[in-house]
Amino acid sequence: MRELLIYQSKGEGELFQKQSPEQLMPVDSGAEISVVDLDDNLTYQQMDGFGASFTDSAAYLIHQVLDAEQQAEVMTKLFDPQDGIGLSVLRNPMGASDYARTLYSYNDLPEQETDPELIRFSVAHDEGDIIPLLQQALKLNPAIKLFASPWSAPGWMKTNGSMKAGQLKKEHYGTYANYFVRYIQAYADKGLPIYAVTPQNEPLYEPAHYPSMLMQPEVQIDFIKKHLKPAFIAHQLETKILSYDHNWDRPDYPLTVLEQANEEVDGVAWHWYGGKPSAQSEVFEAFAGKEVHFTEGSGGEWIPPFEQAFSNVMRTGIEILNNHSKSFILWNMALDEHNGPTVPGFGTSTCRGIVQVNQQTRKLVYTLDYYALAHFSKIIRPQAVRIASAAGNEVIRSVAFKNTDQSIAAVLFNDSGKAENIAVKLQGTEVLTFRLEAKSALSILISDSVE
């Protein structure tokens, strides 16, 4: 007997509502029906999952501002696969990012001092808020995979002596590789295995108002090939290395890195602040077998109206998955009522967190990003394999996966300005017909119950 689990979002106030087939709008009789064909004979990437980042700011808000009861609630709703949405990938900054209360690395020194042996290396900062929350998340969902990316090397390793802007000094390439090793080992000692790292967050962007470090492709090739990968091998680390970690508009960067450091690189990480998701497929097709990951995308006040903002996450998320990504990771897990905290000197923040924690009132609000991620994460589980999903009408965006329990998960989004009649078919057999309102999302989990 076939069972259907359905969640629908129709707008503000009606987000990710569980529905029965009978509660869905019936199709208009005699009206044209858009068919969405699902075919599990055609398979693509295996999914790692969906998530966000425990930046210093996000971890502080959840761990220190919320009370124990609120913290337990939000962690359950974020990570528990049954009682929450089961987020299963986390990408953490290695040291301070733009969303941190202070500027810090894991090896901060007074001016003019250096520490090539990393004697003063310590992840003590993360033991306050970040590590306890990561440990709690893994207890709630042992399938979680951890990614890590630095916004900058410690200032003393750089050309300008600062964590803001500048480049890595050539003489410190080996030291910086060992910095990664020490970080991975320190986290492993806390029961937190790091699945993958990128050498640098947004290597082509060098802002002077928050931690950053310019890393051109030839530098990344040299660093990975001659230092980072050899250091991982020497210390028997299985952590994967992902190239790039920047926007879709420069596929030439990862293509160059993969051409020259193919053996040392496991895949490519992407952001959505420029270009199109098809760049992921362009690089994947040139280097089949390399992993594709989407590691950062933030919503915010630059997309102010609710509908446009929700539509952006749904539409883009579906495209990201249809272009071979094994992950879909948004940005801050939590921000406050001022879209912060941010590093001193950052200025005005317009980003949006998965949840909002008001520092004055301690009120906890689940944002539209939480509900958009829920449409994917609740039904597409770790190790699910993407299957073919073809919609007869281009305004109906769709993506589908087959979970390890053989259930089929499909996410649909009506990207038109009017309601559309839809029929979902699996291997040619009709599963469900309904009418989906404009800019509405629907997630369906199709399973066959054992009699």
Structural class: alpha/beta
CATH architecture of the largest domain: Alpha-Beta Barrel
Number of strand elements: 20
> What name does the CATH topology of the largest domain carry?
TIM Barrel
CATH class of the largest domain: Alpha Beta
Protein name: Glycosyl hydrolase
GO molecular function: hydrolase activity
Family: Belongs to the glycosyl hydrolase 30 family.
Organism: Paenibacillus borealis
Task: Briefly summarize what is shown.
The protein has 451 residues and is an alpha/beta fold. It has helices at residues 56-65, 68-79, 124-128, 130-140, 173-189, 217-234, 252-260, 278-286, 306-322, 368-377; strands at residues 2-9, 17-19, 33-46, 49-53, 89-93, 145-149, 194-197, 240-247, 267-271, 291-296, 327-332, 334-335, 355-357, 364-366, 385-391, 396-402, 408-414, 420-426, 429-436, 441-448.
